[in-house]
Amino acid sequence: MNIILFGAPGAGKGTQAKILVEKYGIPQISTGDMFREAITNGTELGKKAKSFMDAGNLVPDDVTIGIVEERLSKKDCENGFILDGFPRTIHQAEELAKILEKQNKDIDKVVVLEVRDGEIVERITGRRISKKTGKIYHIKHNPPVDENEEDIYQRDDDNETAVVTRLAEYKNQTAPLFDYYKDLGKTVIINGEQEVGKITEDILKILNSL
Ligand code: AP5
Ligand code: MG
Hints:
Blueprint: E1 2-6, H1 13-24, E2 28-30, H2 31-40, H3 44-55, H4 61-72, E3 81-84, H5 90-102, E4 109-114, H6 117-125, E5 127-130, E6 136-138, E7 152-153, H7 160-174, H8 176-183, E8 187-191, H9 196-208
Helix pairs in contact: 1-9, 2-3, 4-5, 6-7
The site of BIS(adenosine)-5'-pentaphosphate (AP5) has 37 residues, from helix 1, helix 2, helix 3, helix 6 and strand 6.
């Protein structure tokens, strides 16, 4: 099963992806997570991505497409994958189609998580993450046991300034992809403002019928 999780920053892509990984045993491919890991490890990729990410801008396509192509060719993607945060531009989507064609694969569904802008800022500024487990928390909706624990951190781009840019990038560069996939008959829209469990239920209904 080859899925794209699509939605604005903070729509809940990462939260749902981690649940689907458990259910289906296929990997989550989050370009954002890959860039953050590269930054932590101080690699060339991390150096290229950092300033774009901190400002809330998209990392250039030539950098991003290469890492996805390499990741999709790994053995653990043979039975499927969950793309989270990729593609984010029409060019990325076109390149993804070419990569998958070479591998005799296709996208089965694009799951769109719909959340209004007002909700986004609250979700993003309240997000906390566990360094050890990668688990995603929210100070109000899903608080970590001990918020001051050393392990819990806040992303560098989870502030009110960067989020304005991230939302603008989403609207200008990423939202047009909705029509791109709709025209291919692949999109399904899920109300992303429900409880996490209810959203998962809605997604599973769609995926289990594939
Ligand atoms: P990326 O890491 O992909 O960030 P994003 O798209 O902005 O999405 P987020 O991770 O912020 O949100 P999410 O949808 O995963 O939400 P989550 O589940 O965490 O990208 C970061 C940066 O990397 C980009 O800005 C760009 O610079 C670069 N980049 C990455 N991919 C790129 C690409 N393809 N091309 C170019 N550049 C790229 O949830 C958010 C919060 O809400 C959490 O606190 C969570 O607990 C809470 N929450 C989740 N679900 C619910 C719910 N149902 N109800 C209440 N709260 C909820
Ligand atoms: Mg995410």
